């Protein structure tokens, strides 16, 4: 999953490549006219994507917390408006299109509910950052790096079980190592910059952004962690009201 495309934006000054499609090559349907409702309804991948998305939004504590936090920040998320199931390049599961404030879910690549949960959470973190801060996604690679660090850290991308499934068995600071690696990979997927540029951006903002745990207040290593974070978030206003 990656924070990605927006049409008509210019690349950052000083980047090594003359042309940068800002990640749109990974999301080819972004430039196409949408299919009719009937055509999409007959497409199995699209149906499966919509069903799994609804399940995530209704039941996943990570997603529910982020939706509530965005609503409180003045950015209410609507299923039909802010999510789009589309075919994508095989290397990505989703993306956040800041030009349309829309989350792209790669219906041809998301095959399991647990994967949908992680992708939606990852992209909602980008959407939350877009809502609460003046993120310059396209001209400031450090802004992109910070959101990628937060998304990898808070979405469940780097749980120990997921790392073991990737055949990565290091236990010492595995969370930090995984977050750093995935943030760099995400930047390289959607921006035509060198690996050195991506690594430099991630290293410069890593400590501050790794420790920015909003709106969770903790790193949710499991669903039970996320449920506790959601409950704590719901109780914030109650405590303030009683002061």
Automatic annotation (TrEMBL):
Gene Ontology molecular-function annotations: metal ion binding; metalloendopeptidase activity
GO CC annotation terms, alphabetical: mitochondrion
EC number: 3.4.24.-
Claim: Thylakoid is one of the keywords in the record: no
GO biological process, one term: mitochondrial proton-transporting ATP synthase complex assembly
UniProt entry keywords in alphabetical sequence: Hydrolase, Metal-binding, Metalloprotease, Protease
Pfam families: Peptidase_M76
Region (Disordered): 1-20
Superkingdom classification of source: Eukaryota
PANTHER family: MITOCHONDRIAL INNER MEMBRANE PROTEASE, MITOCHONDRIAL INNER MEMBRANE PROTEASE ATP23 HOMOLOG
Family: Belongs to the peptidase M76 family.
Name the UniProt record assigns to this protein: Mitochondrial inner membrane protease ATP23
Provenance organism: Nothoprocta pentlandii
């Amino acid at each position: 999953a990656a924070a990605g495309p927006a049409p008509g934006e210019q690349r950052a000054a000083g980047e090594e490549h003359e042309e940068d499609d800002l990640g749109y090559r990974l999301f080819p349907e972004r430039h196409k006219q949408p299919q009719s409702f009937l055509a999409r309804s007959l497409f199995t991948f699209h149906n499966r994507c919509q069903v799994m998305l609804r399940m995530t939004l209704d039941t996943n504590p990570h997603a529910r917390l982020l939706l509530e936090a965005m609503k409180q920040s003045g950015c209410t998320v609507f299923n039909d408006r802010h999510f789009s199931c589309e075919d994508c390049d095989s290397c990505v599961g989703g993306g956040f299109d800041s030009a349309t404030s829309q989350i792209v879910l790669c219906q041809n690549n998301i095959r399991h509910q647990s994967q949908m949960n992680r992708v939606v959470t990852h992209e909602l973190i980008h959407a939350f950052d877009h809502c609460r801060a003046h993120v310059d996604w396209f001209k400031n690679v450090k802004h992109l790096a910070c959101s990628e660090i937060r998304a990898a850290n808070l979405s469940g991308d780097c749980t120990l079980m997921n790392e073991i499934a990737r055949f990565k068995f290091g236990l010492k600071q595995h969370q930090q190592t995984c977050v750093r690696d995935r943030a760099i990979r995400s930047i390289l997927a959607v921006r035509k910059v060198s690996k050195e540029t991506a690594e430099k951006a991630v290293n410069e903002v890593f400590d501050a952004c790794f420790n920015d745990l909003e709106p969770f207040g903790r790193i949710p290593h499991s669903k039970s962690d996320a449920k506790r974070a959601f409950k704590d978030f719901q109780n914030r206003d109650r405590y303030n009201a009683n002061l």
